[in-house]
Design brief:
single chain, globular, 3 helices, 5-stranded mixed beta sheet, alpha/beta, Transcription Regulator spoIIAA, 29% strand
Length: 102
């Protein structure tokens, strides 16, 4: 799992699983602690995700909300969305809606 930063956006690259949760959690909380802006996690390059990783995102979303911020997931692919629903955690996230193409 590689993470690149674009302002308050974390761009995740690779498989997001139990092995990478510490790194992602740390990066999210660093962004949330230091400023008053909302954080976006871009998941366009995430191939697979497991339940442990989804729980990390769910807890981070809850913590952001308690602090008066938003943590938004962007560009969730079909495998990520499917795992959100299978794990019954879909309601735990703010997922950015893709614009409809004409």
């Amino acid at each position: 799992m590689d993470i690149t930063f674009d302002g308050m956006t974390l761009v995740l690259h690779g498989d997001f699983d139990v092995r990478s949760t510490f790194v992602v959690r740390s990066a999210i909380y660093e962004r949330l602690e230091g400023c008053e802006q909302d954080v976006v996690v871009d998941m366009a390059e995430v191939g697979t995700i497991d339940v442990t990783a989804l729980r990390v995102l769910a807890v981070a979303t809850r913590q952001a909300t308690r602090a008066g911020h938003h943590l938004t997931l962007r560009n969730c692919g079909p495998s990520v969305r499917r795992m959100m629903h299978l794990s019954r955690l879909a309601h735990s996230f703010e997922v950015e809606r893709a614009a409809a193409s004409a």
